[in-house]
Amino acid sequence: EVHLVESGGALVQTGGSLRLACAASGFTFDDSAIGWFRQAPGKEREGVSCITPRDGRAYYADSVKGRFTISKDNAKNTVYLQMSSLKPKDMAAYYCAAVTASNKIGTNWPYRWALEYLYDYWGQGTQVSVSA
Among candidates 70, 33, 31, which has minimal Cα distance to 49? Predict the structure, then answer.
């Protein structure tokens, strides 16, 4: 059974930092892609970042480039999202999601990683709140 468990959400001040973690189990981590998405109240869910654990390639939304860093620990089957210089607009519920069918992760993945429908499993989310 696949499990994705997010942790690390909290209330921080503008300019602060947080590290989110996504612990994965029930599938072959190395052959997957793990993405972070977020959804603010009244807004659509959007892709934030993604990593492919086998080669460590990382992808970011323009809105977070230079502020967020995604990383992975293959031994722990865990993906992290280090968030720095947080802004009120970063406040949202953050979800990790996994693509477990490796045939979806092809040469076009850099252009497709933020497409929600490609992800097979989702976590329950963790709340990030940023005070002005």
Answer: 70
- Asked if 128 and 9 count as a contact pair (C-beta separation under 8 A), the reply is yes
* Alpha carbons 87 and 105: distance in angstroms, whole number: 31
Distance CA(108)–CA(21), nearest Å, equals 26
Segment holding 83, helix H or strand E: strand 78-83
Which tens digit of pLDDT belongs to each residue from 82-114?
Answer: 999 999 999 999 999 999 988 888 889 999 999
Helix (H) or strand (E) holding 97: strand 92-99
CB 32 within 8 A of CB 98: yes
Quick check: 26 and 98 in contact, CB under 8 A? no
| pLDDT for position 102 | 84
Contacts of 107 (CB under 8 A, 6+ apart): none
